[in-house]
Amino acid sequence: MRSWDVRGWSRALVGAVVVALAACGGEKPREQAAAPGAPVTKGGTVAIAMSSDFQALNPILATDQYTNELIQYGLYTPLIQFDSALNAVPYLAESWEMLGDTGVVFHLRKDVRWHDGQPVTAEDVKFTFDMAKDPATASLLAEAYLGFVDRADVLDPYTIRFHFTQPHAQAIQDFWWAPAPKHLLQGIPPAELRNAEFNRHPVGSGPYHFAEWRAGDRLVVERELLFPAALGGPPPLDRLVFRVIPEPATQMAALVSGGVQVDLPLQPPQMVQVRESKQLRLFSFPSRTVYFVAWNNQRPPFNDPNVRRALTMAIDRQQLADALLYGQGKVATGPIPPWSPMYTERKPLPYDPAEARRLLGKAGFVDRNGDGRLEGPDGRPLQITLITSNAPLQKSIAEVIQAQVRSAGITLEVRPLEFQTFLAQYRSKDFDGALANWQLDNFQVASAPRALFSSRLAKVPNSTNRAGVSSPELDRLIEQASRETDDRKARQDWAAFEDELEKEQPFTFLFWWAELAAADTRVQGIVMDPRGELQSIRSWWLQGGRLAQH
Amino acid sequence: MGAYLLRRLLGAIPLVLGVATLIFFVLNLAPGDPAALFANPNVPPEVIEQIRRNLGLDQPLGIRYLKWLGAFFTGNFGYSFAQGRPVLDILKEALPNTLELAAASLVLVFVLGVAIGVFQAVHQHSAADGILSVVALFFYSMPSFWLGLMLMLLFALKAHEWGWLFALPATGITSIDYDYLSAGRKVLDRLEHLILPAVTLSLVLAAGIARYTRGQMLEVIRQDYIRTARAKGLPERTVVLKHALRNSLIPVITLFGLYLPLLFSGAVFVEVIFSWPGMGRIIVDAIFQRDYPVVMATSFLFAVLTVVGNLIADALYAVADPRIRYD
To answer: pTM of the entire structure?
Structure first.
């Protein structure tokens, strides 16, 4: 659940220069990657470069993407996990029974322990649930996962029952979160949880235990020897060291010079160097982030679906993905991610400036004075302001869009703003168009459409429906799909929703972002997919297992 | 002297307070919302409101200012919004790192700058003087972040690739294995990590000092008392280092006071490039995240350090020139 990550980009230009310089360098002896099936070496330290520091290491408070991944895959044990096909599989809960559409009962494993030796029980799960649901905690866990869950009852120390407020799709996925230890947190008032000492020195229950955190410098976790064999047992590596290296060029320098073995996230221009190096391996996988231009649906002329459709058709989204993402992105048609079981492949609206012109003509915008630009009925030119954050990638996207729509006679002004200023304008609906992105919290697809397009939210100040989208038909389709508990039918419902979305075009969806990472070939066992960069850290191992230096 | 310093220190209090107040209002009136640190689009406005309440941001600006002022006078900098721990703890971790970098750079700046300046003045119009002037100008006009990246490229990346004897670490303040090293190796390890950032930070400023020192020396060297010193048969070494240098140092000491803020602001870039966990990094992150308590505390600290630096410069005048007295 990362807040929009723009800072990593802010210095990417400098990074690109250095990468280009670094790429024209000398050779050095390569070490071969281990053959598949080679025996796993035990021991060793792997250092990982990250662009920003972790936030509170507490499942109830986690908001940032990598913090969340470290919690889910390293430090704690969530109730469920996902396999590579994104099906829910048992983890802390060794089994569960759905109570029809009204709830679920989980049976917990009895061999999982907190790193201080206490057993992980249903009481911890209930405590975490109650703490998250308390409004004073302002927990995103509650917002992202527990909207349809209102009560938890402990049946016995290892059995817990949850109640749903209404039937909903992908209900088991409400429980992809890890309990926090009740015995260490129970005295803390919810409003003060954010400042708890625990968050900086967590006691978890996962395959790695917390060792050290020097803010802005490094976070160290170590192998947990008592991690249950049934969940994979203790990891092969002795230690993982996460190093905070804010500058992308420096990250790359550290990776090449051996200061770190894994670099996340990688910037698209850096792919070139990683591809050329035999010592490095490139990881690229579909993300949970979609980029779009939100049109202000409450402000003329963007309240006219014809105008919004014309704007979409005036933007060559494939070219954007190819040029700016080095071909790593996929053109988006809506908020349902391509890797989701709920996704139905569809052709995006074509890039067609002539058709865009025709549609704008229908809305009253034609070239009245022969200057190549469109004017409205009052003779004033069609002039659009597109706000964006001032991060280089965002600015480049906006500038390419500006050039593209010109061929349809549209004058578009790009206004790059400091990120917080951008957000303030976007939230208060003070814009024509806003270049923004959206990151899914999890694999449940209903949350995004609901938050972005629900007409109930259109009237709420500062709500997530920042474009002021208000369509009874979209509302109906979203509700229908998100209540459907049969996955096959839910998928059809989402396809119907995207049909309507294509007609309405409240946004111009641009592309799905691809996440990039690089690793030294000696680090084995890395699998990165939509579950995240860190989803396989329990299985990472180091060929020849040694201590990292530098 | 003591009374003078005390007077200056007391006079600095309203100044520092004024700076802090100004920053408080500018920061709070700038667009942006600390609660937006959690600005995942999924966050409904109610959660943001709750976060704002928990952070105390729902109160009027005036009240917040008074509260901040009150807490401030009792030495309570509050909790960081972003890190959820006392700002004092954050400062305690980061300040020594920045001071280490700044102190090392300061020494380098003056030793290097003064040495080069004196050399140039003594060898005026020689080839070495010309070359050094060009080199100094080259570094003087170079942005420190660019210089840093280039040094890293050469002495960390390429040195490693080409197998030089002394490849330096590219990032961080210590090695990953630092805790497992012997005491001697620890010192060496820290020094290794310090070289690139300190050199980056000091080269640009040292170039300036060299230019100043050269100019001052040339002026002083033409004075009558220098001719007298030479005439009475003092060795050239004594003439230059004792008679000339001491007298040409006074304007350079003024620079010391002026350079301190430059050093700290330069550290912001250098710390980001070399991922040096110091105050510069903290202040940049805090501004982006609108982490008000941290921004307030760090800028206050920078203001204090600048005032103290100027004070030290004034005190050093008296050391360099006994004619200057503060009574």
So the answer is: 0.85
